[in-house]
Specification:
CATH class: Alpha Beta
Shape: globular
Distance between the termini: 32 Å
CATH architecture: Alpha-Beta Barrel
CATH superfamily: Aldolase class I
Helix content: 25-40%
Strand order of the largest sheet: 7-8-9-6-5-4-3-2-1-10-11-12
Bound molecules: S-adenosylmethionine
Structural class: alpha/beta
Length: 338
Amino acid sequence: MQQDKFPDRENQLLDSFKRSITYLRISLTDRCNLRCIYCTPKDDHAKLAFGELLTYEELLRIVSIAVRLGINKVRLTGGEPLLRRNVLSFIKRLTAIPGLNDIRITTNGTCLTDFSRDLYTAGIRKLNISLDTLKPRRFEQISGADLFSKVWSGIQEVKEQGFYTVKINMVVMRGVNDDELVDFGRLSIDEPFQVRFIEFMPIGEKTSWSNEMYMPMEEIKKRLESMGRLSPVKTGSMEGPARVYRFDGAAGAIGFISPVSHRFCSKCNRLRLTSEGRLRSCLLLDRETDLKAILRSGGSDEDIKNVFIETILNKPEGHTLQEGNPVNCHGRMSRIGG
Ligand code: SAM
Protein backbone atom coordinates (compact mmCIF):
# COMPACT_ATOMS: atom_id res chain seq x y z
CA MET A 1 0.00 0.00 0.00
CA GLN A 2 2.67 2.45 1.10
CA GLN A 3 4.33 2.50 -2.33
CA ASP A 4 1.44 4.67 -3.51
CA LYS A 5 2.92 7.45 -1.43
CA PHE A 6 5.95 7.28 -3.74
CA PRO A 7 4.36 7.66 -7.16
CA ASP A 8 7.63 8.15 -9.03
CA ARG A 9 9.57 5.40 -7.27
CA GLU A 10 11.16 2.49 -7.52
CA ASN A 11 14.27 4.49 -7.16
CA GLN A 12 13.82 7.73 -5.42
CA LEU A 13 12.91 7.60 -1.78
CA LEU A 14 11.55 10.96 -0.65
CA ASP A 15 10.56 11.44 2.96
CA SER A 16 7.70 13.60 4.24
CA PHE A 17 9.97 16.67 4.07
CA LYS A 18 11.03 16.02 0.46
CA ARG A 19 14.50 14.85 1.42
CA SER A 20 15.86 12.21 -0.92
CA ILE A 21 17.04 9.23 1.13
CA THR A 22 20.03 7.61 -0.54
CA TYR A 23 22.44 6.63 2.22
CA LEU A 24 22.43 3.64 4.57
CA ARG A 25 24.85 3.33 7.48
CA ILE A 26 25.32 -0.18 8.81
CA SER A 27 26.73 -1.02 12.23
CA LEU A 28 28.34 -4.40 11.52
CA THR A 29 29.07 -5.18 15.14
CA ASP A 30 28.82 -3.44 18.50
CA ARG A 31 32.23 -4.80 19.48
CA CYS A 32 35.20 -2.51 19.58
CA ASN A 33 38.79 -2.86 20.76
CA LEU A 34 38.74 0.74 22.05
CA ARG A 35 36.62 2.21 24.81
CA CYS A 36 36.61 5.90 23.91
CA ILE A 37 35.32 8.13 26.67
CA TYR A 38 32.91 9.95 24.34
CA CYS A 39 31.42 6.80 22.87
CA THR A 40 31.41 3.89 25.30
CA PRO A 41 29.32 3.96 28.46
CA LYS A 42 31.36 3.72 31.66
CA ASP A 43 31.45 0.21 33.18
CA ASP A 44 29.38 -1.24 30.39
CA HIS A 45 30.64 -4.50 28.99
CA ALA A 46 27.35 -5.74 27.57
CA LYS A 47 27.89 -7.09 24.08
CA LEU A 48 25.47 -8.60 21.64
CA ALA A 49 25.75 -12.36 21.24
CA PHE A 50 26.86 -13.40 17.75
CA GLY A 51 23.38 -14.72 16.93
CA GLU A 52 21.90 -11.30 17.70
CA LEU A 53 23.83 -9.70 14.84
CA LEU A 54 22.42 -9.84 11.35
CA THR A 55 24.23 -12.51 9.34
CA TYR A 56 26.07 -11.45 6.20
CA GLU A 57 23.38 -13.18 4.12
CA GLU A 58 20.70 -11.13 5.88
CA LEU A 59 22.67 -7.94 5.41
CA LEU A 60 23.19 -8.59 1.71
CA ARG A 61 19.50 -9.23 1.26
CA ILE A 62 18.56 -6.01 3.05
CA VAL A 63 21.09 -3.94 1.13
CA SER A 64 19.97 -5.39 -2.22
CA ILE A 65 16.38 -4.39 -1.46
CA ALA A 66 17.46 -0.95 -0.23
CA VAL A 67 19.47 -0.36 -3.41
CA ARG A 68 16.47 -1.26 -5.54
CA LEU A 69 14.57 1.38 -3.59
CA GLY A 70 17.15 4.08 -4.28
CA ILE A 71 19.94 3.72 -1.70
CA ASN A 72 23.24 4.23 -3.52
CA LYS A 73 25.71 4.80 -0.71
CA VAL A 74 26.51 2.46 2.19
CA ARG A 75 28.86 3.01 5.10
CA LEU A 76 30.14 0.17 7.28
CA THR A 77 30.65 1.25 10.84
CA GLY A 78 30.19 -0.14 14.34
CA GLY A 79 31.64 -0.81 16.96
CA GLU A 80 34.73 -1.53 14.95
CA PRO A 81 33.61 -2.95 11.59
CA LEU A 82 37.00 -4.44 10.72
CA LEU A 83 36.82 -6.66 13.81
CA ARG A 84 33.91 -8.67 12.47
CA ARG A 85 35.03 -12.09 11.29
CA ASN A 86 35.33 -12.55 7.49
CA VAL A 87 34.49 -8.90 6.89
CA LEU A 88 36.54 -8.83 3.68
CA SER A 89 34.56 -11.54 1.96
CA PHE A 90 31.38 -9.72 2.99
CA ILE A 91 32.72 -6.46 1.52
CA LYS A 92 33.55 -8.21 -1.75
CA ARG A 93 29.99 -9.50 -2.00
CA LEU A 94 28.65 -6.06 -1.12
CA THR A 95 30.64 -4.46 -3.92
CA ALA A 96 29.01 -6.90 -6.35
CA ILE A 97 25.49 -5.60 -5.67
CA PRO A 98 24.37 -3.89 -8.89
CA GLY A 99 23.63 -0.20 -8.41
CA LEU A 100 25.68 0.15 -5.25
CA ASN A 101 28.77 2.02 -6.28
CA ASP A 102 29.70 3.94 -3.15
CA ILE A 103 30.81 1.87 -0.17
CA ARG A 104 32.73 3.55 2.63
CA ILE A 105 34.07 2.48 5.99
CA THR A 106 34.43 4.30 9.30
CA THR A 107 37.14 2.72 11.40
CA ASN A 108 39.24 3.41 14.46
CA GLY A 109 42.27 2.56 12.32
CA THR A 110 43.73 -0.07 14.63
CA CYS A 111 43.46 -2.85 12.03
CA LEU A 112 44.39 -0.88 8.92
CA THR A 113 47.95 -2.18 8.68
CA ASP A 114 46.42 -5.64 8.24
CA PHE A 115 43.52 -4.60 6.02
CA SER A 116 44.42 -1.63 3.83
CA ARG A 117 45.72 -3.57 0.83
CA ASP A 118 42.78 -6.02 0.80
CA LEU A 119 40.26 -3.22 1.24
CA TYR A 120 41.80 -1.43 -1.71
CA THR A 121 41.75 -4.60 -3.80
CA ALA A 122 38.11 -5.10 -2.86
CA GLY A 123 37.35 -1.70 -4.37
CA ILE A 124 37.08 0.49 -1.27
CA ARG A 125 38.52 3.96 -1.85
CA LYS A 126 36.96 6.05 0.91
CA LEU A 127 37.81 5.69 4.56
CA ASN A 128 36.99 7.73 7.64
CA ILE A 129 39.46 7.15 10.44
CA SER A 130 38.80 8.30 13.98
CA LEU A 131 41.76 9.97 15.65
CA ASP A 132 41.23 12.31 18.58
CA THR A 133 44.81 13.08 19.52
CA LEU A 134 48.31 13.00 18.09
CA LYS A 135 49.81 12.23 21.49
CA PRO A 136 50.35 8.52 22.25
CA ARG A 137 49.75 8.79 26.02
CA ARG A 138 46.64 10.85 25.55
CA PHE A 139 45.40 8.35 22.96
CA GLU A 140 45.52 5.71 25.67
CA GLN A 141 43.72 7.98 28.14
CA ILE A 142 40.91 8.66 25.67
CA SER A 143 40.56 5.19 24.19
CA GLY A 144 41.82 2.89 26.92
CA ALA A 145 44.38 1.28 24.60
CA ASP A 146 48.03 1.96 23.83
CA LEU A 147 47.52 1.80 20.07
CA PHE A 148 48.41 5.24 18.75
CA SER A 149 51.40 4.05 16.74
CA LYS A 150 49.35 1.21 15.22
CA VAL A 151 46.71 3.70 14.08
CA TRP A 152 49.30 6.15 12.79
CA SER A 153 51.04 3.39 10.78
CA GLY A 154 47.64 2.40 9.40
CA ILE A 155 46.99 5.97 8.29
CA GLN A 156 50.36 6.15 6.54
CA GLU A 157 49.72 2.83 4.84
CA VAL A 158 46.33 3.94 3.61
CA LYS A 159 47.91 7.07 2.16
CA GLU A 160 50.56 5.06 0.32
CA GLN A 161 47.98 2.59 -0.92
CA GLY A 162 46.22 5.39 -2.79
CA PHE A 163 42.82 5.65 -1.13
CA TYR A 164 41.57 8.88 -2.54
CA THR A 165 39.35 10.08 0.23
CA VAL A 166 40.80 9.75 3.69
CA LYS A 167 39.00 11.66 6.39
CA ILE A 168 40.38 11.94 9.89
CA ASN A 169 37.63 12.42 12.48
CA MET A 170 38.44 14.20 15.72
CA VAL A 171 35.75 14.56 18.39
CA VAL A 172 36.63 17.87 20.04
CA MET A 173 36.42 17.84 23.85
CA ARG A 174 37.26 20.94 25.85
CA GLY A 175 39.91 20.20 28.45
CA VAL A 176 40.73 16.85 26.83
CA ASN A 177 42.10 17.51 23.33
CA ASP A 178 41.20 21.08 22.37
CA ASP A 179 44.84 22.11 22.89
CA GLU A 180 45.60 20.06 19.76
CA LEU A 181 43.30 21.89 17.35
CA VAL A 182 46.20 23.70 15.72
CA ASP A 183 48.21 20.47 15.41
CA PHE A 184 45.28 18.87 13.62
CA GLY A 185 44.96 21.96 11.45
CA ARG A 186 48.62 21.57 10.52
CA LEU A 187 47.98 17.93 9.65
CA SER A 188 45.56 19.13 6.98
CA ILE A 189 48.30 21.35 5.56
CA ASP A 190 50.97 18.66 5.47
CA GLU A 191 48.90 15.63 4.47
CA PRO A 192 46.24 15.02 1.80
CA PHE A 193 43.55 14.26 4.36
CA GLN A 194 40.28 15.97 5.17
CA VAL A 195 40.67 16.58 8.90
CA ARG A 196 37.21 16.85 10.43
CA PHE A 197 36.31 18.42 13.73
CA ILE A 198 33.15 16.90 15.21
CA GLU A 199 31.11 18.52 17.96
CA PHE A 200 30.84 16.28 21.01
CA MET A 201 27.27 14.94 21.19
CA PRO A 202 25.48 13.60 24.26
CA ILE A 203 24.57 10.17 22.94
CA GLY A 204 23.91 7.09 25.03
CA GLU A 205 23.88 6.88 28.77
CA LYS A 206 26.83 7.16 31.12
CA THR A 207 29.40 8.48 28.64
CA SER A 208 31.64 11.29 29.82
CA TRP A 209 29.66 14.02 28.02
CA SER A 210 29.25 17.30 29.90
CA ASN A 211 28.26 20.78 28.84
CA GLU A 212 31.71 22.03 29.81
CA MET A 213 33.41 19.54 27.49
CA TYR A 214 31.27 20.54 24.52
CA MET A 215 32.91 23.04 22.14
CA PRO A 216 30.86 24.64 19.36
CA MET A 217 32.06 24.83 15.78
CA GLU A 218 32.41 28.62 15.78
CA GLU A 219 34.95 28.44 18.59
CA ILE A 220 36.86 25.59 16.95
CA LYS A 221 36.97 27.51 13.67
CA LYS A 222 38.17 30.70 15.35
CA ARG A 223 41.05 28.82 16.95
CA LEU A 224 42.05 27.39 13.59
CA GLU A 225 41.83 30.76 11.90
CA SER A 226 44.68 31.90 14.14
CA MET A 227 46.83 29.77 11.79
CA GLY A 228 45.79 31.49 8.58
CA ARG A 229 42.94 32.08 6.15
CA LEU A 230 40.39 29.29 5.70
CA SER A 231 38.69 29.35 2.31
CA PRO A 232 35.45 27.43 1.76
CA VAL A 233 35.60 24.39 -0.51
CA LYS A 234 32.59 23.23 -2.54
CA THR A 235 31.63 19.60 -1.95
CA GLY A 236 29.31 17.22 -3.77
CA SER A 237 25.96 16.15 -2.36
CA MET A 238 27.39 12.67 -1.58
CA GLU A 239 30.05 14.13 0.68
CA GLY A 240 27.98 14.48 3.80
CA PRO A 241 27.26 17.25 6.26
CA ALA A 242 30.74 18.68 6.80
CA ARG A 243 31.40 22.34 5.99
CA VAL A 244 34.72 22.12 4.23
CA TYR A 245 37.55 24.67 4.12
CA ARG A 246 41.18 24.76 3.14
CA PHE A 247 44.23 26.65 4.32
CA ASP A 248 46.10 28.36 1.47
CA GLY A 249 48.51 25.89 -0.10
CA ALA A 250 47.33 22.95 2.03
CA ALA A 251 47.62 19.35 0.80
CA GLY A 252 44.35 18.48 2.51
CA ALA A 253 41.25 20.18 3.86
CA ILE A 254 39.38 20.93 7.06
CA GLY A 255 35.82 19.80 7.74
CA PHE A 256 33.46 20.93 10.48
CA ILE A 257 30.64 18.66 11.59
CA SER A 258 28.34 20.58 13.85
CA PRO A 259 25.23 18.53 14.64
CA VAL A 260 24.57 20.55 17.79
CA SER A 261 25.30 24.19 16.92
CA HIS A 262 24.27 24.06 13.23
CA ARG A 263 21.85 21.25 12.63
CA PHE A 264 22.04 19.78 9.15
CA CYS A 265 18.80 17.82 9.44
CA SER A 266 17.24 19.57 6.44
CA LYS A 267 19.87 17.90 4.26
CA CYS A 268 19.88 14.54 6.05
CA ASN A 269 19.73 11.68 3.54
CA ARG A 270 20.47 8.84 5.96
CA LEU A 271 19.04 5.71 7.43
CA ARG A 272 20.83 3.55 9.96
CA LEU A 273 20.80 -0.20 10.43
CA THR A 274 21.86 -0.99 13.98
CA SER A 275 24.05 -3.96 14.85
CA GLU A 276 21.03 -5.81 16.25
CA GLY A 277 19.23 -5.39 12.93
CA ARG A 278 16.90 -2.48 13.63
CA LEU A 279 16.23 0.23 11.06
CA ARG A 280 16.46 3.76 12.42
CA SER A 281 15.75 7.05 10.69
CA CYS A 282 17.64 9.47 12.97
CA LEU A 283 20.83 9.14 14.99
CA LEU A 284 19.26 11.03 17.87
CA LEU A 285 15.79 9.52 18.00
CA ASP A 286 15.25 6.13 19.63
CA ARG A 287 12.61 5.04 17.16
CA GLU A 288 13.47 1.82 15.33
CA THR A 289 11.85 -1.10 13.52
CA ASP A 290 13.09 -4.62 14.10
CA LEU A 291 14.05 -5.83 10.63
CA LYS A 292 15.79 -8.88 12.01
CA ALA A 293 12.56 -10.15 13.59
CA ILE A 294 10.80 -9.73 10.24
CA LEU A 295 13.57 -11.54 8.38
CA ARG A 296 13.72 -14.38 10.87
CA SER A 297 9.99 -14.94 10.88
CA GLY A 298 9.96 -15.54 7.13
CA GLY A 299 9.27 -11.95 6.01
CA SER A 300 9.19 -11.35 2.26
CA ASP A 301 11.19 -8.80 0.28
CA GLU A 302 7.98 -6.77 0.11
CA ASP A 303 7.78 -6.75 3.94
CA ILE A 304 11.33 -5.46 4.16
CA LYS A 305 10.68 -2.86 1.52
CA ASN A 306 7.63 -1.67 3.44
CA VAL A 307 9.70 -1.23 6.60
CA PHE A 308 12.07 1.01 4.65
CA ILE A 309 9.19 3.02 3.29
CA GLU A 310 7.47 3.41 6.69
CA THR A 311 10.77 4.36 8.35
CA ILE A 312 11.41 7.00 5.72
CA LEU A 313 7.91 8.41 5.96
CA ASN A 314 8.32 8.65 9.72
CA LYS A 315 11.75 10.25 9.59
CA PRO A 316 11.55 13.32 11.83
CA GLU A 317 12.12 16.76 10.40
CA GLY A 318 15.00 17.29 12.79
CA HIS A 319 16.54 16.16 16.04
CA THR A 320 15.85 17.93 19.31
CA LEU A 321 19.37 18.28 20.58
CA GLN A 322 20.24 21.87 21.47
CA GLU A 323 23.22 23.65 22.92
CA GLY A 324 23.03 23.72 26.70
CA ASN A 325 20.34 21.05 26.73
CA PRO A 326 21.80 17.64 27.33
CA VAL A 327 18.68 15.76 26.27
CA ASN A 328 20.07 12.74 24.54
CA CYS A 329 19.05 9.47 23.00
CA HIS A 330 19.49 6.29 24.97
CA GLY A 331 20.73 4.11 22.13
CA ARG A 332 24.40 3.20 22.29
CA MET A 333 26.69 4.71 19.71
CA SER A 334 28.42 1.40 19.02
CA ARG A 335 25.12 -0.26 18.12
CA ILE A 336 23.83 2.68 16.10
CA GLY A 337 27.17 3.23 14.37
CA GLY A 338 27.55 6.98 14.74
N1 SAM B 1 34.94 2.22 15.43
C1 SAM B 1 34.75 3.13 14.37
C2 SAM B 1 35.46 4.43 14.68
O1 SAM B 1 36.06 4.56 15.73
O2 SAM B 1 35.44 5.32 13.82
C3 SAM B 1 33.31 3.37 13.97
C4 SAM B 1 32.31 3.60 15.03
S1 SAM B 1 32.29 5.20 15.79
C5 SAM B 1 30.87 5.03 16.83
C6 SAM B 1 31.72 6.26 14.49
C7 SAM B 1 31.98 7.72 14.67
O3 SAM B 1 31.20 8.21 15.73
C8 SAM B 1 33.42 8.09 14.97
O4 SAM B 1 33.89 9.04 14.05
C9 SAM B 1 33.35 8.69 16.35
O5 SAM B 1 34.31 9.67 16.54
C10 SAM B 1 31.93 9.24 16.38
N2 SAM B 1 31.39 9.45 17.73
C11 SAM B 1 31.21 8.52 18.68
N3 SAM B 1 30.69 9.08 19.81
C12 SAM B 1 30.53 10.40 19.55
C13 SAM B 1 30.02 11.51 20.30
N4 SAM B 1 29.59 11.35 21.55
N5 SAM B 1 29.99 12.72 19.72
C14 SAM B 1 30.44 12.89 18.45
N6 SAM B 1 30.92 11.88 17.68
C15 SAM B 1 30.97 10.65 18.22
